[in-house]
Amino acid sequence: MSIQNIRLEVMRFLEDKVEGFMQEYLIPVEKIWQPSDFLPDPESDTFFEDLKELRELAKDLPYDFWVAMVGDTITEEALPTYESWLMCVEGVDNLERNGWSQWVRQWTGEENRHGDVLNKYLYLSGRVNMREIEMTTQHLINDGFDIGTGRDPYKNFVYTSFQELATYVSHNRVSQLAKTYGDNKLSKMCKMIAGDEMRHHLAYSEFVTQIFKVDPSEMMLAFNHMMKNKITMPAGFLRESGEKISSAFENFSNSAQRIGVYTANDYVEIMQKLIDKWEIDKITGLNDEAEKARDYLMKLPARMAKVSERMVIPTDSFVFKWVEPAVIR
Prior knowledge:
- It is a single chain.
- The protein is built from 13 helices and no strands.
- By secondary structure, it is mainly alpha-helical.
- The protein has helices at about 5-15, 20-25, 45-60, 65-75, 80-85, 100-125, 130-145, 155-180, 185-215, 215-230, 250-260, 265-275, 290-310.
């Protein structure tokens, strides 16, 4: 049997557990928070007073904070790319509406709220150029991404396990910074988004745990492949209006690192957390190739940590069209 067919069989085997995963890791629509819970209510008599408060608090937030917020928002708003990509994973059957496709739809429904609330907040804040942000978002959806997983569910679940934890870190740090600057409402909003991301991370990492139980060697090789080739961030093709895909994502990453929203150290720590969570050192029944992959994985965080220590982040902020420095005083 080919590797592809084995993966398909494993996905079908695990499909019986998907309904349980949805009950454990997703929240019913009527019970989960919605964007309007954190924004001024246009039906309220205090709408304009609430809006004024939001805009006043936003004035104290620094330039790199806004760049990080915008980058996070654009990443969340490119959700159509992520859903279409997951729907193409081996074992996810869109036509039959199987358990996996239902998971993808419900996961998408939860994720959709993130870009929605962040976009509305940015719009109301008056601190950013919304048209430039909207054009960047459209470019990102148009350009798509290449995360090096193909249709392989093993590699895709490694990617989502890593990426959901990375977005948790980013949104949680933005929440902490907002609180530091006295914006408790924005802080709570971002913390709620972070909470969703953590739940989704726990789900995808559980999928990997289950696969390790039934196909340990191939799952180990898939994990090794993703870590060896490095995780490509979903906004890797970020670009501004009138520009080609070049260094925009790097400049965004530099802003995020300067303000401590997401750093190279975080990347290494997430890698180590996945190694610990999946108890890579205790996996049994591996073939020779998978054993070598395990050895590589166990040593990789220490190697990557040394590389991150030598990284030099530019001290000057890149001027994005999304956020004009003259506006941020």
